[in-house]
Structures are given as C-alpha cells and as structure tokens.
Design a protein that fits this description.
The protein is mainly α. Helix content is 71%, strand content 0%. It is rod-shaped, with a radius of gyration of 45 Å.
Length: 155
Amino acid sequence: MEELQTQETQTEETQTEQTQTEEALTPQQATKQAPEEERTFSQRDVNRIVNKRLAEEKSKAEALFAQRECALARKELRMEAADMLRQRHLPAVLAELLDYEDRERCAASLAAVEIDFQAAVREGIHQALRGLGPPKDGANRRDPGAAVRGAMGLR
C-alpha cells in the first residue's frame, strides 16, 4: 500500500512539474514542442523543387556572368580609346568624354571629341594671335637692325 501511495505521489509531482513547465513556455515554444506532422514528398515533387532551384541559380549565374562580361568589354574599350587618343596626340583626359556602350559608339564619340578639340585649339590659337597684332600708334616698334648695330658698337 505504501508503494501505491509513493507511486501516486510521484505521478502527481511529475504532472505538477509538466504543468508548471507548460505554463512557463511561450506560445511559440509550446508550438515547437508539439509533435509536428511530417510531410512526405514524392519523387516528382522533389524533382520539381530541385529543378526550380537549379533554374534560379543558373539564371543568377548567367546574370552575373553577363555583368562581368560587360564590365570587361568596357574596360577593353577604355584601353583602346586611350591608345587611340595617344596615337592622335590628344590629351588622355578626353577619354572621360567618350561613350563606352559599344565599339561603334566609342569610335563615333572619339571622332566627335577629336573634331571638337581641334576646333577649340584652332579658336584658341586664333584668339592668341589676334592679340599680337602691330601697335596702333607705331611708337613702340622695335628696329630689327638695332640689336646688330648695338653689338657692333654702332648707333
């Protein structure tokens, strides 16, 4: 009889501990402890899921490859444009003005920049030479023979 009472007491203590533990758990923790229903997949489902994920990863990889390929092509165009500018004796800073979308656009923009640069140089030279005209009053003219006469001691 004492054994029966001891077992009942232990059972009551265990139930009390479980109740206290369950009360202390948050609803999320209680949900985690509840037995979850295991989901099974057929081979067809697994194949579909795997193929979908593979297709997503493949498209990501292809997009990354295309992006890197485009960056490499632009870098090559920049190097070629810098070389062309050097060959045409143009400043390297003009490379910043070029369009590197593709080879044709780069060549067209290089030609346009070269034409504009040469026109600007001609205009600058014209403006600079315009300021070196003969004096209007003629009083400040230098005698070209004065240096030779001065060197010989003649005045």
